[in-house]
């Protein structure tokens, strides 16, 4: 197959592209965010185009989506549906406005749809109190908590879904075969979408060419889920789909989903090994916040703004939980804040023949 590739450039240099097979990409800006833009995709069908994601809810983003679709010969009023790969605002934010303009349906996986319903059912005060208590239990110092909870810059929750998807479903795309591949980790209901009649995979944030998606756990101290374990299993799954071209939500188009998925898995396995070594060196158990402050990020911890410290803590918590599931560390009972301690008897070689795959949750 012929594959398109666009290098990562500033948003101002991006343009809508005809990718062939009745697919267009439209860059939609994320104002004030270093990611720059979301790549929204339009798939043609006899009943009208279906969008994969919609972009950030902002007037500039709406204009870019509307005008970009026009370059492709698409009136936004003709959109038949919007499939949201996951509920985050740079993907789902404009879905409601597209629905208002066209009467299109909005579809997302049932797990993310349930989260959206929950978020729409509670006010900002309740969400703020929830976050403050979560940070306290993670061991965030009092001086950090007010900034983290008040400067998150979050948007309103996205529009509720009209249709709830499950793994293996075919999206309502007449004349085409667009199949749902449930890939939890980045969110519980993240999906990739396999355009089977074109050998392409819309990867959302699951597999990106140059960066790795945020894998966090919320609340930070949950002990009944394993998002990183889910993510690693999902990487393995997309790697079995064959030689597919990737159409990601950020950065650029690339040709080999399986190879990149393997790279991302290796990145997290190495990160887990380093984290276990870090805890093993400490005489005293560490809180989630203390752990995050000791891990390596793209900037020193002291330079991370409050919102990014909170995200780093969520990612640290997901890695701690994955190690706990593997039997590499233990959570001290009754801790408030919760603390973790490495088990010295565990080594990376103890992962077993499955190469580090998760075992059943306790």
Automatic annotation (TrEMBL):
<dbReference type="InterPro" id="IPR050662">
    <property type="entry name" value="Sec-metab_biosynth-thioest"/>
</dbReference>
<feature type="region of interest" description="Disordered">
    <location>
        <begin position="138"/>
        <end position="168"/>
    </location>
</feature>
<protein>
    <submittedName>
        <fullName>MBL fold metallo-hydrolase</fullName>
    </submittedName>
</protein>
<dbReference type="Pfam" id="PF00753">
    <property type="entry name" value="Lactamase_B"/>
</dbReference>
<feature type="domain" description="Metallo-beta-lactamase">
    <location>
        <begin position="37"/>
        <end position="250"/>
    </location>
</feature>
<dbReference type="InterPro" id="IPR001279">
    <property type="entry name" value="Metallo-B-lactamas"/>
</dbReference>
<dbReference type="InterPro" id="IPR036866">
    <property type="entry name" value="RibonucZ/Hydroxyglut_hydro"/>
</dbReference>
<dbReference type="InterPro" id="IPR036388">
    <property type="entry name" value="WH-like_DNA-bd_sf"/>
</dbReference>
């Amino acid at each position: 197959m012929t594959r398109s590739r666009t290098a990562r450039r500033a948003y101002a240099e991006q343009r809508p592209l005809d990718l062939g097979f009745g697919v267009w990409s439209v860059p939609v800006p994320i104002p004030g965010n270093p990611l720059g833009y979301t790549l929204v995709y339009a798939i043609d069908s006899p009943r009208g185009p279906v969008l994969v994601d919609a972009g950030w809810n902002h007037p500039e983003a709406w204009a870019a989506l509307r005008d970009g679709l026009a370059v492709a010969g698409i009136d936004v009023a003709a959109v038949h549906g919007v499939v949201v790969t996951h509920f985050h605002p740079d993907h789902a934010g404009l879905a409601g406005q597209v629905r208002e303009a066209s009467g299109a349906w909005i579809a997302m996986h049932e797990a993310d749809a349930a989260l959206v319903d929950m978020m729409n059912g509670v006010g900002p005060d309740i969400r703020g109190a929830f976050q403050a208590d979560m940070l306290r239990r993670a061991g965030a110092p009092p001086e950090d908590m007010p900034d983290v909870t008040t400067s998150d810059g979050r948007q309103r929750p996205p529009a509720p879904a009209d249709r709830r998807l499950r793994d293996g479903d075919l999206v309502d795309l007449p004349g085409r075969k667009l199949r749902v591949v449930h890939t939890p980790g980045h969110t519980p209901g993240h999906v990739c979408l396999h355009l089977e009649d074109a050998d392409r995979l819309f990867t959302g944030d699951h597999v990106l060419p140059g960066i790795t998606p945020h894998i966090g756990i919320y609340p930070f101290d949950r002990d009944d889920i394993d998002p990183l374990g889910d993510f690693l299993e999902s990487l393995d799954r997309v790697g079995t789909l064959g030689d597919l071209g990737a159409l990601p939500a950020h950065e650029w188009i690339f040709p080999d989903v399986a190879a990149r998925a393997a790279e991302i898995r290796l990145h997290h396995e190495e990160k887990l090994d380093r984290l276990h070594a870090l805890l093993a060196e400490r005489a005293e158990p560490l809180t989630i916040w203390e752990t995050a402050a000791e891990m390596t990020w793209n900037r020193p911890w002291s330079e991370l703004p409050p919102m990014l410290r909170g995200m780093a803590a969520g990612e640290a918590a997901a890695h701690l939980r994955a190690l706990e599931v593997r039997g590499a560390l233990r959570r001290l009972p009754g801790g408030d804040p919760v603390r973790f301690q490495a088990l010295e008897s565990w080594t990376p070689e103890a992962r077993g023949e499955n190469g580090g795959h998760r075992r059943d949750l306790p």
